[in-house]
């Protein structure tokens, strides 16, 4: 079975968006290079960031996100972001009215059920968990194997926290990957068990 990875870009002070859910410059590194990261051609990164990011993206079998992220992205118009096969949405509400039941989105109640469903869908591939409240809940429940961060040199001061509302200490191992890209530092930590 694949590992569960919490992953996103993050400010130096630990935020994934401002108070208005705007990421500001957090994703600028995805468009400031000359190497296409995906088939769209919209994402172009430095060679170093490509060599780090593309192999990881190719391993992702399912992504877990909260209903809030699903709603503010309009469900990515029914197409999972980044070419991912499946998105599992943690929610207490049903799919939106008129939602295409054939879209590869799965609506589940609770983070434990979301991880179980995502593992089933991903098989031996990576299950990616979006940061924020859902990611923090998964970490607190002991369901996250690794934390990956693309740390961007910006300070938000306040906003949506990477680890959501986690209120207890969780130890990570020393970073086993540290890659400096252009305007981004890629870090990977295994969760200490």
UniProtKB/TrEMBL annotation:
It holds the Pfam family RibD_C. Transmembrane segments: none annotated. Residues 111-181 form the Bacterial bifunctional deaminase-reductase C-terminal domain. InterPro entries: DHFR-like_dom_sf (IPR024072), RibDG_C (IPR002734). GO terms for biological process: riboflavin biosynthetic process. GO terms for molecular function: 5-amino-6-(5-phosphoribosylamino)uracil reductase activity. This is Dihydrofolate reductase. It comes from Amycolatopsis suaedae. The lineage of its organism: Bacteria, Bacillati, Actinomycetota, Actinomycetes, Pseudonocardiales.
């Amino acid at each position: 079975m694949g590992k569960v990875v919490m992953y996103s870009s993050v400010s130096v002070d630990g935020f994934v968006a401002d108070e208005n859910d705007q990421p500001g410059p957090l994703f600028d590194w995805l468009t400031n290079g000359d190497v296409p990261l995906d088939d769209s051609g919209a994402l172009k990164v430095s060679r170093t960031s490509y060599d780090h990011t593309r192999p990881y993206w190719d391993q992702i079998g399912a992504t877990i996100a909260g209903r809030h992220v699903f709603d503010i992205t309009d469900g990515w118009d029914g197409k999972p972001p980044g070419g991912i096969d499946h998105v599992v949405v943690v929610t207490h509400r049903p799919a939106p009215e008129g939602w295409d039941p054939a879209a590869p989105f799965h609506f589940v109640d609770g983070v434990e059920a979301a991880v179980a469903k995502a593992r089933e869908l991903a098989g031996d591939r990576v299950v990616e968990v979006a940061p924020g409240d859902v990611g923090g809940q998964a970490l607190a429940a002991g369901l996250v194997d690794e934390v990956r961060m693309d740390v961007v040199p910006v300070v938000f001061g306040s906003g949506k926290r990477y680890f959501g509302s986690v209120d207890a200490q969780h130890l990570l191992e020393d970073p086993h990957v540290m890659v400096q890209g252009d305007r981004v530092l890629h870090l990977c930590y295994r969760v200490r068990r």
